[in-house]
Amino acid sequence: MSVRASAANPSYSVLVRLHPISASVISPSLKKPVRPEIPRKTIYRFSVYLRCLARLKDNQIQTVSSETLAKVAGVKPTQLRKDLTYLGQFGTRGLGYDVSELSRMISDELGTTRLQPVILVGVGHLGLALLSYRGFEKEGFEIVAAFDIEPQRRREKQIAQPILGMEELPRFITEHHVKMAIVTVPAAVAQEWPIS
User: What are the residues whose beta carbons fall under 8 Å from the beta carbon of 53, sequence distance 6 or more?
Assistant: First the structure.
């Protein structure tokens, strides 16, 4: 799935590319039911729920009702409860969900119990600012490398991530199992970039 969104400056575009996450299947030899594949829209809402739960944890809130979590996430309570059935039966009627447990279960399903590697393409002013931003880690992402047509060019800021040439991009993506990129190049250049 690809999503393109123009930033505040229409001459730049940001591209986020995600591969679908499928639910795990339990072996028939164990005689347990096979879990259905989780729809993409539900996966997206799981990521929204996870961010909401993180804010609740930051505010030391330990339990949350489906009505409250749904309101914060911007969905109907029935939709939230339907989505959570993909994770199994849990929660206490009348008390709600344990925030830490629900957060862990969603993280396990999304595969975000560890930081997901992300690359950045285009190390201009916007790219440098994003490389310095520490908020991605809180959302479960880590920019592991940056790519630019001029990797040796002198930059204003010192950054921790390596800046590599564009010719190294395919190899790096394969070796580091990268599934998402942030593209911070002029829109015309982004349109020319071959994406498969």
Answer: 64, 69, 99, 102, 103, 106
pLDDT tens for 106-142 read 888 877 656 778 999 999 889 999 998 888 877 777 8
Q: Where are the alpha helices (DSSP H) in 133-196?
A: 135-138, 169-176, 187-192
For the chain, what is the radius of gyration of the CA atoms?
20
Strand 12-17 vs strand 185-186: parallel, antiparallel, or unpaired? Answer: antiparallel
In the chain, the percentage of residues whose pLDDT exceeds 90 is 35
CATH architecture of 36-110: Orthogonal Bundle (1.10)
Q: Where are the domains of the chain?
A: 2-21+114-192, 36-110
Q: Report the distance separating Cα 84 and Cα 32, nearest Å.
A: 19
The three-point CA angle 154-160-164 to 5° equals: 55
* CA 93 – CA 89 distance, rounded (Å): 11
Q: What is the pLDDT of residues 130-176, one digit of tens each?
A: 998 888 877 777 899 999 998 888 887 788 899 999 999 999 999 98
Superfamily of the domain at 2-21+114-192: NAD(P)-binding Rossmann-like Domain (3.40.50.720)
